[in-house]
Specification:
about 170 residues; alpha/beta; about 20% strand; Nucleotidyltransferase, domain 5
Length: about 170
């Protein structure tokens, strides 16, 4: 199974493609960040995110997409902009007939580190270790996106095991 994880952001949207092989080994297929200038109007930034995510989906052919769930923000204006980016990410996935799964930040951290309140650097280090990468993925948004994809793969594997036992 191959998952595209997306860490939505208005200045940098991170992405990471992770595959779970038949031998249950995680592998990074690709990662990076879609950097956006604040000088560019928001509608143009959203179009860029949609175009680049659509290209990544066609290039890497994931089976599904995973993104971070909505969190509570103090700044309402920032939260609204982030919501628009999330909507565009979901649209890119659904336009390519892919399902989208959302995960809470605590769930992502628990799946990767084993502790829901882990620090950002702990998540980044575990992502590098789980994917056998020589260094922490950059930008930081890419490491977060890889963590989201890992969370989705771990969750899917757990559900599959539970279904097998239930039979």
């Amino acid at each position: 199974m191959r998952v595209l994880g997306i860490d939505c952001g208005t200045e940098c949207t991170g992405y990471g493609v992770v595959e779970l092989g038949s031998n249950d080994v995680l592998a990074s297929i690709g990662y990076g960040g879609i950097r956006l200038s604040r000088q560019v109007p928001l509608p143009e930034r959203l179009a860029t995110i949609f175009d680049k995510l659509s290209t990544l989906i066609r290039q890497h052919r994931p089976d599904r997409v995973a993104i971070e769930d909505v969190f509570y923000a103090v700044n309402v204006k920032s939260a609204l902009k982030l919501g628009q980016v999330r909507g565009v990410a979901m649209l890119a996935a659904s336009s390519n007939q892919l399902s989208v799964t959302e995960y809470a930040p605590l769930t992502i951290k628990s799946a990767v580190v084993g502790y829901g309140k882990a620090e950002k650097v702990q998540v980044q280090l575990m992502v590098a270790r789980l994917l056998h990468l020589p260094q922490i993925p950059q930008p930081a948004d890419a490491a977060d996106a890889l963590a989201i994809a890992i969370c989705d793969l771990h969750t899917a594997a757990t559900i599959t095991r539970q279904q097998a036992v239930a039979r």
